[in-house]
Every structure is written in C-alpha cells, then in structure tokens.
Amino acid sequence: MTMFATKFKFALAFLAGALMTFGYAPFSYWLVLFVSLPIYLYLLAQTQPKQSFKIGFAFGLGWFGAGISWVHVSIADFGGLPLIASIGLMLLLCSYLALFPALASYLIKRYFSLKLWPLALPFVWLSIEWLRSWLFTGFPWLSLGYSQINSPLAGWLPLIGEFGLNALILIICSSLALSFIRKHWLSNLSLTGIIFISGVVLDQVNWATPTGNTAQIAMVQGNIRQELRWTPEQDQPTMDKYLEMTSNHWLNNDVIIWPEAAIPQLEPIALDYLRDLDSIAAASNTGLITGIVNYNFETKQAYNNLIGLGVKNSASSNQIDGVTVGHYRYLHANRFAKHHLLPIGEFIPLESWIRGLAPIFDLPMSSFTRGDYQQANIQANGFNFAPAICFEIAFPRQIASNLYFNTDFIITVSNDAWFGASHGPAQHLEIAQVRAKEFGLPVLRSTNNGITAFIDHTGAIQSQLPQFEDAVLTDKIQLVSGETPYRKLGDWPIWLISLSLFFIAVKFRMSR
C-alpha cells in the first residue's frame, strides 16, 4: 500500500469518527452510527494488523475530537490558558480517549478474522468501554447507545441498558461491514431487521406503569453567569435571586429543586440563610432540595452536596418559639455527597505537583472529597429522590446502586454554564433520558442555565426550559410502579451473552 493510500485511510477513519457526533444530541440523527461504524470497521478489515491500532486511534480522535469539543469552551473561557495551550490540552484529552477504540481495534484485528467479528467484537468493545468508564474515575461520555434514545433500538434499553445496547450496535455494524466485503447481504440484513423489529416490539412493553399519584415539582433555573458564581461579593445577590424566583412557588408545589451549588456560600457560613429557607419551606408545607458545598474547617475536606430542607415527610415540620421550622440541621443525614468527581474540575490528580502550573489547575472548588458510592435517598415532602450530581448521571451502575424499593425519582443537578452554547448540555440531557428509559423512573434535571427538564419514565421529555433564561419550570410528575429488567439484573445478562459469543468465536478460531 502506498503512503498516500495509507494516509487517505487514516483520514477517512478520522472523518468517520467525527461524523459520529451527528448521531448524538442536539443533532440526534441516530442512523449516522450505522454509516460511520461500518465505514470504520470496513477500513479496519482492509488494514494490516500492525496498522490496526493507528486506524482505531484515528477513528477515536475524530469521534471524541468533534464529539466533546465543548470541553474546549471551559478550558479556553474559564481555564485561564492561552489558546494554543487550551487546544493542546484538549488534544491530549481526546488522544487519551482515542486509545480505547484503538486498543479494541488492535485486539479484534490481531486475533480474529473478519467473519468472527460479529461474535467477538461485542465482548472486546464492552470490556474496553468498561475500562474507559473506570480508569482515572472514568469518562464514559459518547458511549454508542446514547445515540439511540429516539431510534427503534430504544426499546432494548429497559432490558439490557445503554451498555448492552453497545453490543447490539456492534453486532449490526460488524455484520454490515462483513456484507460490504463478502457480499452476504441477506443473512446480515435479516439479523439487522430482527434486532430493530425486536426493539419496536419491546418498546410496547410497560415495564413500569403510572400509579395515578403525582407530585407537583418546581425547578428553579437561576442562570448565574459562570464567572460570577464563586465571586464572594456575588454570594448574597445570587442567594437573594434564588429566593425571589422561588417566592411565588412555595404554596403550589410539593417539592422545589435548586441546581448544583445554587447556594454559593459554604454550608457552615450560610447557616442563617439555610435556617430561614428551611422555615419558609416548612411553613409552606414544601420540601426543598438544593446544591451547596460543605467545608469542614478542621479536616480541610470539601463536599459537593445536595441537601434537603423544609418538609421531609408529613410529620417533619414543628414549632420552636412559635416559629415553624423544618428538619434541617447542619450535617443532618438528609444529604448526598458527590461520589464521581471530575478530574481537574473537582479534584486534581498529582495535586502537589501540578496545582500551581496553570490557572486551570487552581480553579475555585477544584479539590473535593469523594462521597460514598452508595448513599441514602434524599427525602422531600414524603418523596424519595436518588441523586446524581453533574456527570454522575453517566454512570448507570452507580445510579442502580442508589435505587431502593421506595425510590420515586432520579434527580440530577448540574451547572453546564462551563460549556456555554455548545452541544455539551444537550448531550448531558440525552444521557439523563437514557437513564429514565433504562430504569423506568422519572428523571428530574435541574441546572443553573439549562437544559432544565422533566423526563418521564419512558425517557421522553415532558417539559423543559430554554437555555440562558432566568425561569422556573413546574409540572405534575407521575409516580410509577414496577421495575425494568435492567434495574433488576444490571449488566450481568449482556456480559454473559457477549462472553458466550466470544467463546464461540474463540472455538471457531481454534478449529481452523
């Protein structure tokens, strides 16, 4: 193969990866994946094993370079780095993520012939994707299945989850690539048709059903500019703004939700404000959930928290000196501490070495302590909320570990102001939709500047606010009963199935 042909192949792999971006929100052209992935696999099939890693890396660099380009907004606008340095850091992140499809490409090309890829590739890919979701706390963004929330394959989500949907997508796409090369169209297209039709049929099954009971919930989108959030002189104006925006909604809602770190003061400093807020909520017979940072001045530990105030359950409010108060006490148990911390943004790897190298490594609130993996639900006015702060919503295993028999809703709060008008917030919302569909539970997504939305138990957006507006979203949310198979069984079925297919492929390979 000539040098020109090799470079052309790498460029085409890069473009196929970049094209994947259009499969995800806000574009949501789910069919794109069934063009991009077969092209990449076709190129991989036509590549010598010694070049397979590079083809996978080129594909991954395009996939993540275009797909998470929104990270550059936070680095360039708030990281304090010059343009060339921010581009370099972005390239470093994308190169790291590209190593995972590169490794999968090398393994499948090195050890299996093309005709065995539909059997072997799902297990190889899932193993590499699991590694991506775990290594250095994990970054499972742009996993393949998220692109299919609006496709016929979405019916598989309550059965095998987004993780399992990766396997089905790879079976389809490797079969299509095989058809391009071997011209065995009938069998492979039949398999594709069966998987898609099965998804449509499965989507008609009501794994979870509304009980007829509802909760009236309001979510407040304060739209505080990112550069003002940790400016001390803006603390009180921000807290006043949230209180004012909520003032007309106390009596009409069972629960009110404020987003991540809506209260910018540290919890021990904001105690007077919190007690007043607690009393107002309790006097209105309302529960309030808000984000706030707790800091222990003795241990020097900071926690990114969600806390409950006001009415916890029907008997939680009481009178002290004639004043109605709720259940809030400093360090009370009705709270959640973020477990999955974002590298650089919330903790600094090798902190003693790199903390002072550049402003991005010394951002406000960039050294948190991790909360427990499994925690109690937050209670508000008799309802139970399973929390996920910011990108924790991208970790289904953690969400599953925090779902209990009496969990009513999944709540995810975020501050996507870091990413401006990019496609990052839309991808974030799409991930929340997938979690709702997987677990058969409504997801309530409260953000600082959008996209704030109520998602029903089928993954459909029930209502949402526009981005970059000061607004309050209110809606009646259905409570549901029943559990999806994925909520009960998790990833074990797809691991067993993909591993069985892998062993069949190994057996065929050894019998050649």
Characterise this structure.
The protein has 15 helices and 14 strands. 51% of the residues are buried. The chain has two domains: 3-206 and 491-510, no CATH class; 210-483, Nitrilase/N-carbamoyl-D-aminoacid amidohydrolase, CATH 3.60.110.10. The strands form three sheets. Strands 7-4-3-2-1-14 form a six-stranded mixed sheet. Helix 3 packs across helix 5 (83-111). The protein has helices spanning 3-19, 33-45, 49-67, 71-78, 83-111, 117-134, 157-182, 185-202, 235-246, 271-283, 351-354, 396-401, 424-439, 485-489, 492-510, and strands spanning 209-221, 255-257, 287-296, 301-310, 318-320, 323-325, 335-337, 378-380, 383-389, 409-414, 443-447, 453-455, 461-464, 471-481.
Write the layout of secondary structure elements.
Layout (H helix, E strand, L loop, with lengths): L2 H17 L13 H13 L3 H19 L3 H8 L4 H29 L5 H18 L22 H26 L2 H18 L6 E13 L13 H12 L8 E3 L13 H13 L3 E10 L4 E10 L7 E3 L2 E3 L9 E3 L13 H4 L23 E3 L2 E7 L6 H6 L7 E6 L9 H16 L3 E5 L5 E3 L5 E4 L6 E11 L3 H5 L2 H19 L2
Helix pairs in contact: 1-2, 1-3, 2-7, 3-5, 4-5, 5-6, 6-7, 6-15, 7-8, 7-13, 7-15
The helix tally amounts to: 15
The shape is globular
Number of strands: 14
CATH H-level superfamily title of the largest domain? Carbon-nitrogen hydrolase
Instruction: Tell me the number of structural domains.
Output: 2
Measured distance between first and last alpha carbons: 28 Å
Instruction: Write down the CATH class of the largest domain.
Output: Alpha Beta
Instruction: Give the SSE string.
Output: HHHHHHHHEHEHEEEEEHEEHEHEEEEHH
Biggest sheet details: 6 strands, mixed
Low-confidence stretches are 353-364
Radius of gyration: 24 Å
- What CATH architecture of the largest domain would you give? 4-Layer Sandwich
Strand order of the largest sheet: 7-4-3-2-1-14
Strand percentage, roughly?
A: 15-25%
Helix content: 40-55%
**Structure classification:** alpha/beta
Q: How would you state the average pLDDT, rounded?
A: 91
User: What would the CATH topology of the largest domain be?
Assistant: Nitrilase/N-carbamoyl-D-aminoacid amidohydrolase
